[in-house]
Model the fold of this input.
Amino acid sequence: MISKKLLDILCCPETKADLVLEGNSLVSTDKETRRCYRIEDDIPIMLIDESEQLTLEEWTKIMKKHGKTAE
Done:
């Protein structure tokens, strides 16, 4: 599990946007890129080439769940 302290330090390597913890992944709060970085064995894989780009619908749902604005 990613600690709150680590989550506060990490950011999206592409846009430097904040991240939210969603299940076993970290999701960028940047609406344009909507990057999703997986976590393996409690280690975030923060490589852009290894990330997934969420659909706008998926990303918006996650942002609302975490109290972030989706605009």
In short: The beta strands are 19-22, 25-28, 35-40, 43-44, 52-53. The mean pLDDT is 94. Residues 34 and 56 are 7 Å apart (CA to CA). The two ends are 29 Å apart (CA to CA).
